[in-house]
Design brief:
With about 200 residues, the protein is of the alpha/beta class. It has nine helices and seven strands; from the N terminus they run βαβααββααββαααβα.
């Protein structure tokens, strides 16, 4: 029997990384799509030559210059689609290798920020959406280094609204509550998945 695959998603600043870490702490293998992208775009990353060819001046010896690449694609749908056509197939290949490595685990988590936006929800069995109040999200995001109101709003414009994500979720985990409440919600999801697996 193959593992139950959970898609973990949430808009920027919602606390998804915190929840992903809680799943990992509970022993659930977590595929972190962002971390894979950082590695593929880092020093000697396999995607550098393709990105540089399409977006000249956005890479260097330390990998992708994320500020330069962001400036090249944010707000430009065609450029974003071009970048996604370079990145997404490589991430899918890494994810397939991850699933193979953990094929005997009872469950896996795919941590994918744009799960719904990219159609990735078709590749998972259940979806967990991480959410927080809009004012909490805004404060968290604007506290990030290099973040501006314009950049935050541009990112939000590319993401499905939080209310729609929550409506499409099998489980919603809040992070605008004490950490132990969030951890308890993670534990309940894991227990539910074990129940599914036993049926």
């Amino acid at each position: 029997m193959r593992p139950v695959i959970l898609g973990l998603t949430g808009s920027i600043g919602m606390g998804k990384s915190t929840v992903a870490a809680m799943f990992a702490d509970a022993g659930v293998p977590v595929f972190d799509a962002d971390a894979v992208v950082h590695r593929l775009q880092g020093p000697d990353g396999t995607l550098l030559s393709a990105i540089e060819a399409r977006f000249p001046g956005t890479t260097g010896t330390s990998g992708v210059d994320r500020a330069a690449l962001g400036a090249a694609v944010l707000g430009d749908d065609a450029a974003m689609r071009t970048l996604e056509a370079i990145v997404h197939p490589a991430v899918r290949a890494e994810r397939a290798a991850f699933v193979h490595r953990h094929r005997n685990a009872p469950m896996l988590v795919f941590d994918i920020p744009l799960l719904f936006e990219t159609g990735g929800d078709r590749d998972v069995d259940k979806v967990v959406v991480v959410s927080a109040a809009a004012d909490v999200q805004r404060v968290r995001t604007l506290a990030r280094p290099g973040m501006t109101v314009d950049k935050f709003e541009a990112i939000l414009a590319r993401q499905m609204p939080d209310a729609e994500k929550r409506a499409r979720a099998d489980w919603v985990i809040g992070t605008d509550v004490p950490l132990e409440q969030t951890r308890g919600a993670v534990d309940r999801v894991i227990a539910c998945v074990h129940d599914i697996e036993r049926r």
